[in-house]
Structure formats: C-alpha cells, structure tokens
Amino acid sequence: MKRRNKLRSKITIRNLSNLPVNFDYQYGLASMLYFKLADADVRLANEIHAHQGFKFYTFSNLVLMNRKACKSGLCFERAYFILSSPDDRFIRSFTEGLLQQPEFYLDGPRGRIDLVIERIEILKEPSFGDECLFRTLSPIYIKTIRKENECLREIDLYPTEPKFYENLHRNLTERFSEFYGKEPVDHFDVVQTADINPRRIKIADSYRRCSLMSLRIQASPELLKFAYDAGLGEKNAMGFGCVDVVQGSKPIQ
Predict the structure, then answer these.
(1) pLDDT in tens, 92-107
(2) φ and ψ at residue 38, rounded to 5 degrees
(3) Residue 186 pLDDT
C-alpha cells in the first residue's frame, strides 16, 4: 500500500491586478490546480484525469483577508484557500508545481485577473475520536436520481431532505473503500446540523445547488479522518465539501 500521510495546505495568494474575481471562481481554481499538478507530476495528473472513479482531494472557498466592497465580483488584495487530500503524493506534487510557477489567473467581470502564490503552509491534523463537529469551508454537494414524467432526472439535494444524509453516508464509505482498498468500520450518524446556507454555484456551463453548514457527526475515527482529508459529498475536486474541525465545540444550539 502507498504511504497515506494526511496533509493539508493553506495557500495564500495575492491579487496583482487589483480587479474583482468572478463570484463563481471554483471551476477556474480547480483547473489551475490540475495544471499546476501536471507541471510537477504529469503522470499523476494523467492518472487523475483518466480515472473514472472518485478523485481524492478537495479545496475550500477563497477566504478573503481584506475584502473590499464590490458588486460585480470579489475584490481583495490577499486571500487564502485550503487544499486537502489523504494522499501525500498529490499534496507534495501540487506544492512543487506551485513553487515552480507561482503565477496563475482567474476570470473576472472585467477580464483576466493575475494572481500569485505568496505562501504555502502545511497544517497540523487534529486527532479524531468517535464524534466531530465540522464546519464547511466549501459547500457540500449531494445529488440523487428521481423519476419524473417517466424520465429519470438528476436532482440536487439540500440538508432538509433525509436522502441528503443517506447519500452523504454512502458516498463517504464508497470513497473510503476505493482509496484504502478495504471496508471502513461503518458507523455513521449526523446527529446535529446548524447554520445551513443554501448556495447555487456555476461549474462550467451548469449550476449546482449545494449547502454551507455545520454538522456534528458520530462515526468511526477512520471515517471522520477521511471526511476531513478528502471532503464530504460529491465533486470534491471541483471545490465542494471541504470541511474543518471546530475545536473545543459545545453542542449546537
């Protein structure tokens, strides 16, 4: 089995153009990550691109360190995002790619926005027991298939529906099994939720309905660690489902 050192990086960026970035920037950020990975490890990038199953990394929303008022997009001088994976090969290759070429760009309402990576920090992983309070750093995306008018349709789910939690559980255990090549200790229950914030995010030419939220999960430590490392829900490599641990947390009110 390959080494599975869990690594999480904090990537600080600076806006060189002093212009706003589009509100829906996740697809552009995901594309940048892939190309930076290819710069450092083209074999790994090709493996990820060709792989038909799950992709085992996720990243957060941009956290704006000095946001400015702007109606057309996100205006900032500096921001950071979190990149997380259960596979240290991905994190190390991505970091190498960024160090080789720290400049990148995202689209904005006025055109191309030039940015540069200023700093990369490796974050310490928390310890896990059998319960954890997570808060989302990027929204969780879950879908299902339903029959409507004799046709099967893909439907995005919100946390108000029980099917959301059923699919969240199944997705997590299936990804764990594919990554580690073994079944997890399958105890999983979302016992509390709070601060649910529905979102609608454009990825390429389609919109995804998703949710920012806090959720307390009781599960085996290995499943909780995997959720932290690889994210919750679907389309993690597109910037969905990145979570952080709320330390010293009290019960959600």
Answers:
(1) 888 888 888 899 999 9
(2) -65, -30
(3) 85
Q: Residue 110: which residues within 8 A CB-CB, separation 6 or more?
A: 19, 20, 72
Catalytic residue among 27, 34, 180, 207: 34
> Residue 131: what residue type?
E
In the block, residue with structure tokens 């929303």:
61
- Identify whether 57 is a catalytic site residue: no
Three-state secondary-structure class, residue 85: strand
Q: Active site includes 25?
A: no
In the chain the domains, ranked by start, together with CATH numbers, are 7-123 (3.30.70.1890), 131-245 (3.30.70.1900)
DSSP 140: B
Chain centre to alpha carbon of residue 23: 16
User: Exposed, middle or buried by CB within 10 Å (0-12, 13-18, 19+), for 49?
Assistant: exposed
**Residue 139 to residues 60, 74, 142, Cα–Cα distance (Å):** 9, 18, 10
Classified as helix, coil or strand, 58 is: strand
Catalytic pick among 49, 51, 187, 207:
49
pLDDT in tens, 151-166: 888 999 999 999 999 9
* Res. 193: pLDDT tops 60: yes
Residue 160 exposed, middle or buried by CB count within 10 Å (0-12, 13-18, 19+): exposed
Angstrom distance (rounded) from CA 25 to CA 19? 14
β-strand pairing of 103-108 with 63-64: unpaired
